[in-house]
Design a protein that fits this description.
Helices cover 68% and strands 5% of the residues. It has one domain: MFS general substrate transporter like domains (Growth Hormone, Chain: A). It is mostly helical and 487 residues long. The protein is built from 21 helices and six strands. It starts with 9 loop residues before the first helix and ends in a 9-residue tail after the last helix. A hairpin with a 2-residue loop joins strand 2 and strand 3. The strands form three sheets. A two-stranded antiparallel ribbon has the order 1-4.
Length: 487
């Protein structure tokens, strides 16, 4: 982490991750239903263009060390639009391909989407070391302490254009927004977008539906966060917050009048299909784990291996810097890179041998690898030389990420088989919305267990959940007398 003198505590910074994770997942809920209501081109162009706001805002805010925390919280809140954009794209692309090809098509879309996240984990630190935007990018700041990076150690006193972490996104968002407008279409069929509005009307509907999702996310964040970071201080448990946010979003959206309500009433039929809920759980196992681990992995490396864990007066302490600890920035991007890159492979294999079978194999691997990671986390967190356990920890985590990626691709194939075409798009968006709460939930669990000095408990808990998913997947989709036998 770069030390540039911003007056924030580490715990304050981690709330930004929680805000972005909760909002990004919540905005996926309305986005699941936008394609049929507003059209693919209208939706993707507008949501991509909206992402320019937090990119520019973050770049400006990062130029001043006196920028208050609430500004960064607002930018984190607006960055959640990216989660909604992803859900819309998944729903949109499901209408382009026959069922026999949807595993690969959706896997490519999702894999390349998450590949962008890992790519930016590499590009952002590089752009922060160069004044590529000239006078428009502002003046550099000086590092206060030596920091680790993907390219090694950066000494104190080095110039850093940290504001480029925001501005660099403009190099991609601006051309992508134009590309979605000129090279995509609003599909018009009886099942998809039968009576969509013009661009301005569609933009208005998207804005209204997003406003509801933002409101629900803000209510949840206020209930959960402490007063020191602009919350209520009530400390409502995260599990209750998730339920409140999801239920509030779904019901407020349905309360909207006119054409929106008519469209949503039709699309909300997916909630009467029990397989929507089954696939939400299974998809959470794969994508929820992927996105959650991607957010928590750097923290796990830094806290577990970046400090020496020694006994002092009969008490284990965890605040002594480990000079031999690995750099989180140098290694953390590799695991999600593997998980994202391999997702299309999962879809392609599933198109050939069946989605449920691939999901089952991946689920078992996730159970075993989670327990393996838990073992080495416990060993490292009890050792004055935790770096000795880093290699097996890292390699097993790579296996875990690969399993989430392949399993994620295979769930796309199962959804395409189980649901009719009219429902498949909204279901893909909805399941991705529920699973995306992993970006909020998993880092919170990691943080709580690290604070309790038992980080391995987090992985053991996840392994128990994966075991349940093994049974669930077998019962509904692998039993020969199951409703949707999908080997």
């Amino acid at each position: 982490m770069l030390n540039l003198g911003f007056p924030f505590e580490k715990s304050d910074l981690f709330t930004l991750t929680a805000i972005a994770g909760l909002t990004g997942a919540t905005l996926r809920i309305p986005s699941s239903f936008l394609i049929r209501l507003c059209g693919g081109r209208n939706t993707l162009f507008f949501t991509t263009s909206l992402l320019i706001i937090p990119a520019v805002g973050a770049g400006i805010a990062l130029q001043d060390k006196n920028t208050p925390l609430w500004v960064f919280q607002l930018m984190a809140l607006l960055s959640g639009i990216g989660g909604g954009n992803f859900a819309s794209s998944m729903s949109n692309i499901s209408f382009f391909f026959p069922k026999k090809e949807q595993g690969l098509a959706l896997g490519l879309n999702a894999g390349l989407g998450n590949f962008g996240v890992t790519t930016m984990q590499v590009l952002v630190p590089l752009f922060m070391s160069i004044g590529v935007f000239g006078a428009l990018g502002g003046d550099p700041m000086k590092l206060i302490t030596t920091s680790g990076s993907i390219i090694g150690k950066i000494p104190a006193g080095t110039d850093a254009w940290i504001q480029n972490a925001g501005f660099v996104w403009l190099l991609f968002l601006a051309p992508l927004a134009l590309a979605t407008w000129f090279f995509t279409n609003n599909i018009r069929t009886d099942e998809v977008s039968p009576n969509i509005s013009g661009p301005l009307g569609s933009f208005s509907k998207i804005t209204l539906m997003f406003a509801i999702a933002f409101f629900a996310a803000l209510v949840g964040l206020w209930l959960m966060l402490p007063e020191s970071v602009n919350g209520s201080g009530f400390g409502v448990p995260k599990e209750i917050v998730l339920v409140i946010v999801v239920v509030l979003t779904v019901y407020l959206l349905k309360a909207l009048p006119g054409e929106i309500r008519t469209s949503l009433n039709r699309q909300y039929r997916i909630f009467n299909n029990r397989h929507t809920w089954v696939m939400s759980i299974i998809y959470t196992m794969t994508f929820g784990s992927f996105i959650g681990f991607a957010a928590a992995f750097p923290l796990a490396i830094k806290v577990i291996f970046g400090y020496s864990h020694v006994m002092a007066d009969g008490v284990m302490t965890h605040d002594q810097i480990n000079p031999n600890g690995p750099s989180a920035l140098q290694y953390a991007w590799i695991a999600p890179f593997v998980g994202a890159l391999i997702r299309p492979v999962g879809g392609m294999i599933s198109d050939r041998v069946g989605g449920a079978l691939v999901t089952q194999i991946c689920s078992v691997i996730m159970v075993i690898s989670s327990l393996g990671v838990a073992y080495y986390m416990h060993a490292a967190y009890s050792s004055p030389t935790p770096e000795e356990y880093f290699v097996p920890f890292f390699l097993i985590f790579l296996v875990l990420f690969a399993a989430t990626g392949i399993g994620n691709g295979s769930t796309f194939r199962t959804i395409a088989i189980v649901f009719p075409k009219e429902q498949a798009g909204p279901v893909l968006g909805w399941t991705s919305a529920i699973a995306a709460y992993g970006a909020f939930y998993i880092p919170k669990v990691f943080g709580e267990q690290i604070k309790a000095t038992t980080p391995e408990y987090a992985l053991i808990g996840f392994a128990i959940f994966y075991t349940f998913c093994v049974f669930l997947n077998w019962w509904f989709y692998l039993r020969k007398n199951g409703e949707f036998y999908n080997p």
